[in-house]
Design a protein that fits this description.
- This protein is α/β, with parallel strands linked by helices and 375 residues long.
- It folds into two domains: 201 residues, P-loop containing nucleotide triphosphate hydrolases (Rossmann fold, 3-Layer(aba) Sandwich); 120 residues, Zinc Finger, Delta Prime, domain 3 (Up-down Bundle).
- The chain contains 17 helices and six strands.
- Helix 13 packs antiparallel against helix 17 and helix 14 crosses helix 15.
Length: 375
């Protein structure tokens, strides 16, 4: 699979090919952007191109090196294999002593947030110090091929003390290796790490491009393809793995919470809804907050009286239009600020249930009929 098969973000692809063609390969790269837009995929393709036995700025997909590195295209199989080999009942010391490292070629490593166990994974997988120590040792080895490449997927899951270990590698980078970090946002990483990386931000793909990918890679009905592409908001990876019915229901549930909060009615049911949301283990809390951000973005366009609003949640257009008549832009902006605080608090292990309840209550109208109190 060569670069030509990568859809979207053509400028990033061209820039990476240019570094390979000129031989001026960066020692540290940072890929940021929404989940599912191809950050890990392009990192793996770059590793193939950097070590291809036939081409200098692309991968042939046929040589032995390309074929071995291409096994990283399905990391889940390698993750499951690594967890089985380490053992289901591994304690904390074993997890650090036997780090989860995905490796199908000696020169290319992929590190992903460690779920610890296969049958009962932890709620918040993260990159661990054992994984970073292994990279710290291996990064300075001479490559068997042209270049060693280490991909750290989900770099924002590193705790600050773990990130400091990685910072030491960046301060004295090996000349024959490239470190590629992927994260949703550069602001979730230490500024000292970000400043030492060449940054590329991945934009969401157009809906038509996502639909094309879904038609090629899935057997979904046309209606489900269209809805999945809409709900994925430009992320083909998210669209492919999406349970369309569940995703649509999640957005309806989130909109119901906003409606109850805006009207100040049914607080017993409102708190029951937020409790169910906080206990949902099927999706991460960050993904759940992302649903609210999408709905609030639509409401902001509607309450701002834009002539031709472009809604993300077109399947809920009627409900959003109705809610926009009950709130104004100031209310929407307060809600967005409240979710910003909730997101920051979640990273500090704030009680999510209490945070959601307090936010929902703060958005209710005052008994005198005035606007909602500030957060």
């Amino acid at each position: 699979m060569g670069f030509s098969e990568f859809l979207g973000n053509e400028r990033i692809v061209a820039a990476l090919r240019g570094t390979l063609r000129t031989g001026r390969v960066p020692q540290a790269l940072l890929f940021t952007g929404p989940r599912g837009v191809g950050k890990f995929t392009l990192a793996r393709m770059f590793a193939q191109a950097a070590n291809c036995e036939r081409l200098t700025d692309d991968s042939c997909g046929e040589c032995a090196t390309c074929q071995r590195i291409s096994l990283l295209a399905d990391p889940q199989k390698l993750i499951e294999q690594g967890l089985v080999e380490r053992g289901e009942s591994a304690d904390a010391a074993t997890v650090e002593r036997i780090p989860l490292i995905l490796q199908s070629h000696p020169d290319v490593w992929a590190l992903v947030p460690d779920p610890v166990r296969l049958k009962s994974p932890v709620a918040r997988p993260m990159l661990r110090i054992g994984q970073l120590r292994a990279v710290q040792r291996a990064a300075y080895f001479q490559p068997m091929g042209r270049r060693r490449v280490f991909v750290l997927d989900g770099a924002e899951t590193m705790h600050w003390n773990v990130a400091n270990v990685f910072l030491k590698i960046l301060e004295e980078p090996p000349g024959s290796a490239t470190l590629i970090l992927t994260a949703r946002s550069p602001y979730a990483l230490l500024p000292t790490i970000v400043s030492r990386c060449l940054q590329f931000h991945f934009a969401p793909l157009p809906q038509a491009a996502v639909e094309k990918i879904l038609k090629e890679k899935t057997a979904r009905k046309p209606a489900d393809v269209k809805l999945a592409a809409q709900l994925a908001e430009g992320s083909p990876g998210l669209a492919i793995e999406m349970d369309v019915a569940a995703a649509a229901q999640n957005r309806k549930n989130a909109l119901r919470i906003l409606e109850r909060a805006a009207h100040g009615q049914g607080f017993a049911q409102l708190f029951a809804d937020t409790s169910a949301l906080a206990k949902d283990r099927e999706s991460s809390f960050e993904d759940q907050l992302g649903v609210f951000y999408g709905l609030l973005t639509d409401l902001l366009e509607l309450t701002s009286k834009m002539k031709e609003p472009v809604l993300r949640n077109t399947n809920l257009a009627k409900e959003l239009e109705l809610l926009s008549k009950s709130v104004d832009s100031a209310w929407v902006l307060r809600a967005i600020a409240g979710f910003d605080e909730l997101y920051a608090g979640a990273r500090r292990n704030l009680n999510r249930q209490l945070g959601l309840d307090a936010l929902a209550a703060s958005l209710a109208p005052m008994s005198s009929g005035g606007s909602a109190p500030c957060l």
